[in-house]
Amino acid sequence: MRHLQAGSGGTHRPDQGIDPKKAHFSFICYDLSHLTDYTKSVDTPLFRILKKALPGPYTFILPASKQVPKLLKTKRDTVGIRVPDNLICRTLVNELGNPIMSASSRSMSTWKNTPIPRSSMTNSVNW
Q1: Residue 82: which of 25, 42, 20 has the closest Cα?
Q2: Model pLDDT, residue 9
Q3: CA-to-CA distance for 30 and 83, rounded, in angstroms?
Q4: CB 60 within 8 A of CB 80
Q5: Which of 28, 34, 38, 104 could form a disulfide with 100 if both were Cys (CB 3.0 to 4.6 A apart)?
């Protein structure tokens, strides 16, 4: 596990939670069947691109539908949709029967990984 340190000097640890006003949220879906639940209608050319690229390592930012709570939308009224190519993640989503929410930082390019000293992890990791 690693701490993420922002370029501004602040740190974020997973146990501190995520400020919804500063995070971008995405729905991790098993496939494109939930697309219309969270996005406005998608035209055929865009749907073909989505179908060709997903599952894959992409998050598509699309216009959010009215079903998406305001807290989860950006100022531009958009939402991220992901269909990962990771079988474990997709199986979890499929078994749950609903997409999973994921959050990311607004500017990941400004973050850098800072290792946690091994001594601070001895209670949670078996060496």
Answers
A1: 25
A2: 38
A3: 6
A4: yes
A5: 28
